[in-house]
Amino acid sequence: MKTHYTEDPVEAASFIRDGKLVVFPTETVYGLGANALDDAAVSQIYDAKQRPDSNPLIVHLASIKEALRVALEIPPSAQLLMEAFFPGPLTLVLQRHPSVPKIVTGGLDTIAVRIPSHPTALELLKTAALPIAAPSANLSGRPSATSWESAAEDLHDRVHCILCGDVATIGLESTVVDCTDQVPVLLRPGAISLESLTAVISEFSSDAIHLHRSPGMLYHHYAPDAKIRLVDASSNVLPEDNAGYIGLGVPSNVSSFRKCLIAKDIEDYSHRLFEFFRTCDRSGVEVIYCEQVMPVDLGRALMDRLEKAATSTKSGKYDES
């Protein structure tokens, strides 16, 4: 198919209403969207991404009141979290409404929903007047796209429309919380930290029995073609030939790296991680050394993405022994 490029969310919304695929910006990463109530439209997402259809999608909404269009009920815990963090980078798992095709939920009776805070995404949703199912806009297993250019790199001529916007401000996918049990469960860390969540609801479970309900948790994700090596500190980096480095500290042998990114803080590290992975792949870098951080607040989400990238079939953890 031929991909149409636009900066107009109203024009992009017409593609959604016509049952077609649209790449669009959010504050987390770019999404690949289709009408969540049209199973034929949603099936195109899996085809375009080459994504297993057992991997559930996130349904994006324009407002909290639209949640009951796709979910059976809003439990008290979900209501509190919605009031505190919607719109924003938080996804809640609820019981699926029968009107939502099971292809959206990977065959599950639960559904993941969120309201993005990105103004272009919200205008797209309001104009389309439909819930939009949307995973990240990249080929399955590749680093998520944080710019429309990176999305186009993977999906040009695989989608009908790309809504071009600014670079995603967060750069990591949303936090996912399961609200279907009495005690909420953090399924995927993100920009809304566990510390922020527990300030609203004091009790959270660490039981991962329902991990399959979360998008982006059961398959290899976030991995570039280069191998990922996790290191404790920049001073421990002993680069191989044709290597890259990303972290907070400056390696003593920084000039030895073909590509190097020194982040100013955890937010900057998280924001630029996926694009750095893609930059290294474009340059033919074979190994990327990534400095580990403390797994607290946003660092928990960053380490989640780094560890998944390092343990994919293409990479392996760095053994410092």
Task: Describe this entry's structure for a reader.
Helices cover 26% and strands 18% of the residues. The chain is an alpha/beta fold and 321 residues long. The strands form two sheets. A ten-stranded mixed β-sheet has the order 1-8-2-3-7-4-6-5-9-10, sandwiched between helices. The protein has a four-stranded parallel β-sheet with strand order 11-14-12-13, covered by helices on one side. Helix 1 crosses helix 4. The longest helix has 17 residues, at 266-282. Residues 313-321 have low confidence and may be disordered.
Biggest beta sheet attributes: 10 strands, mixed
- Contiguous low-pLDDT stretches (5 residues minimum) are 313-321
Percent helix, as a range, is: 25-40%
Helix- and strand-based class? alpha/beta
What series of H and E elements makes up the topology?
EHEEHEHEEHEHEEEHEEEHEH
Give the overall shape. Answer: globular
Spatial separation of the terminal alpha carbons: 51 Å
Q: Determine the number of helices (DSSP H or I, runs of at least 4 residues).
A: 8
The portion of residues forming beta strands comes to: 15-25%
| Rg (CA only) | 19 Å
Overall pLDDT metric: 91
Lateral arrangement of strands in the main beta sheet: 1-8-2-3-7-4-6-5-9-10
> How many β strands by DSSP?
14
Give the tags.
disordered C terminus, 321 residues, 14 strands, 8 helices, four-stranded parallel beta sheet
